[in-house]
Amino acid sequence: MDNVMTEAELQQMECVYAKPGTLTETRFHYCPGCGHSVVHRLIMEVVEELGITEQTIGVAPVGCSVFAYHYMNIDMQEAAHGRASAVATGIKRVLPDRYVFSYQGDGDLAAIGTAETIHTCNRGENILVVFINNAIYGMTGGQMAPTTLLGMKTTTTPTGRTVETAGYPLKITEIVATLPGTYYVTRQSVHTANAVRQMKKALTKSFQYQKEKKGTCFIEVVSNCPSGWKMTPVQSNEWLVQNMFSLYPPGDIKVPK
Amino acid sequence: MSDIKIMKGNEALAEAAIRAGCQGYFGYPITPQSEILEYLAGEGRARGMIVLQAESEVASINMIYGAAGAGARVMTSSSSPGISLMQEGLSYIACAELPCLVVNVNRGGPGLGTIQPSQGDYFQATKGGGHGDYRLIVLAPSSVQEMADFVYLAFDLAERYRNPAMILADGALGQMMEKLQFPEYDRAAHRVAKPWATTGKPASRNANIITSLHIQPEKMEQINLHLQEKYRLIAEREVRFEAVQTEDADILVVAYGLVARIAHKAVQLARESGVRAGLLRPITLFPFPYEPIRHLAEQVSSVLVVEMNSGQMVEDVRLGVEGRVPVRFHGRMGGVIPSPEEIADLFHTMAGSKVAHHEEVS
Q1: Third-level CATH fold of B4-182+213-237
Q2: Does the ipTM exceed 0.90?
Q3: Following DSSP, what letter does each residue of B48-86 receive, concatenated?
Q4: Do A76 and B202 touch (CB under 8 A)?
Q5: Tens digit of each residue's pLDDT (9 = 90 or more) over B286-311
Q6: Which of A128, A157, A171, B357 has the most CB atoms within 10 Å of its CB?
Q7: Cβ atoms A222, A240 nearer than 8 A
Q8: Does domain B242-361 have CATH number 3.40.50.970?
C-alpha cells in the first residue's frame, strides 16, 4: 500500500507524542471505547511528566479496573471492594513523603466504600482519589450503581431505575466537596480531546497540591460503559453528554481560594 | 530486664507495642480493649508512633493492609464484634502475606453479647475466620506479663513468616492489673528486610504489587499450596505450650489463657486431696500442640478441657488424643468465669472420687 511508511521514513519523523514509560507493555483489557484506559494513561503520563514515578504508589479497586496494576508500571496495592481509600490512608500515613492515589469506580467508592470515602476526605488525607463514574457496575455485568440515573435500565433495574424501589442517584462528589478536609474537588470527563486535556490539568494540579500537603484531592470522571449501556463507543459518548452531564455537570466543584 | 511495673493488661500490651518498634496503630474503640487505643493515642504518639482512630474496624484493618504493604510494622486491636468486622480484611492480608499484629480482647457473644471475658472466638481465630483457606499465627497470653511479652513475639513471627499474627486475650486479661517487667528488645536485631513492600518503584526493580487476586485457577492453586506449605512449616517450628505437673499426671486438663490459670489452681487443689492432675496450656493456638497432647494421652486415664465457650478447642484436643482416652468438656459462657473449685470437682468425679473437694474444705 502506498500510504504505509517505510522504517527509514518513520525514523526521520519527529516524535510528538508517545506512550509513557510508566505504562507496561500489557494491552488494556477494557472494552473498545471505555474511558478507563484513557484515564489510566493520563495518570501515568502526569506521573512521568512530574518526575514522581519512583515516589508514587497507587491503589486499585474492585471493579473493571481491578487489574490497573497490570498497566501502571509503579508500586501498587489491590484493595478489597470499597476499601481503597482506607488502604491509601494506611500507605500515606507510614510513607508521608510519597504520592498516593486511589482509583475507584462508582460501586466501589459510592456504595460499598461510602464510609471510607467520606472519612478519608473528612480527615483531609493527603491523597488523590480518582473516581470513575459510569453509572453502572461494569465488571459484574451491568447492575445498578449508586450513580445510575433515574429511568436508566440496568440488569437489576430492567424497567428503569425508580425512586420508589432504588432511591436517587448519589452525588457523592458534591458531598465530599462540603467536607473541610477536601482541598480540590472537580468533575471531569475524557470523551473528547479537549476534555482529556482538562482532565490532565486536573491530575497535574492534584499531585502538586499533594506535594504541598493541602488535603484530599478528588477527581470524578464522568465516563461511559459501552458494553453495559449496550451502545457503540460513539453512541455512549453522545449519551453521556445528553444524559449524564445534566445530573453530573463537568467542572470544578471546589477550588483552592 | 527493666523495673517492675504494675499495669493493666491492655496498657502493658500497648506499652510493649511502642517498645517493639510498632510504627503505626489503626483502630476503633470497643470495650474491653479501648485502653490500647487510648494509651497509644497519648504515649504512643508522644514517642513517634502513628496512631489513627479509624471510622470502623473495616477501615482500620484495611489501613493495616495498606501500611503493612508499604513495609511498616503495624497493628490494630479490637474485641469480638469488631474482629468479626475485620475478617474480610484479614483474609486479604493473609493471602497477600502481609505481616501485622491483630489483638482480640475476646468478649462474650454471639451478637453484641457482653463485655465480660470469653473464649468464644477460638474457632474464628484458629481456623481462618474469614473466607478461603488461611491461618493466623495465634498466641494466647495468660498473664499481664504475657500480654506484653507476646507483642514482641507476635511481630517477629509475623515478619519472619509474612503472616498476620493474633494475640487472643480476653476481657479479664485486658482489664486486670498485675506486676510485670518489660523485656530487653533489640529492634535492630529483629529487623527483617521487606523487598516486596510498595515503597515507590525505583528504575532498578520491577513494580511491587500487593494483591490477593489471581484469576487463573492454576495460579491461585499455586498460591494456596505456597500458603499451606508455610502453615505446615509454622506448625513444625513454632508450637509453644506449657506443661504443669504432667510428669506423673493421671488426669490431664487442657486450658489456655485466663482459664489455664484457674485450671492451674484446680490442679493444686486436686493434688492436695490426692488426685494426680496435670495441666497442659497451649500458648500457640495456631499452631496447636497436637503432639504433646498425643504424647500425654498415652499416659493419663482421661482428659478434661475447660474453656469459656461451648466447646471449641476441645475439638483440637480430641484430634490430638485420637480416641486413646475419654475427653470431657466443661464450658462456661456469656462472660461467666469458671472457678478452681468447679474444675477440681470434675477432677474428683473423673478420678472416681466420691468426695468433692469443696465438701472436704468447707
Answers
A1: Rossmann fold (3.40.50)
A2: yes
A3: T-EEEE-SSHHHHHHHHHHHHHTT--EEEEE-HHHHHHT
A4: no
A5: 999 999 999 999 999 999 999 999 99
A6: A128
A7: yes
A8: no
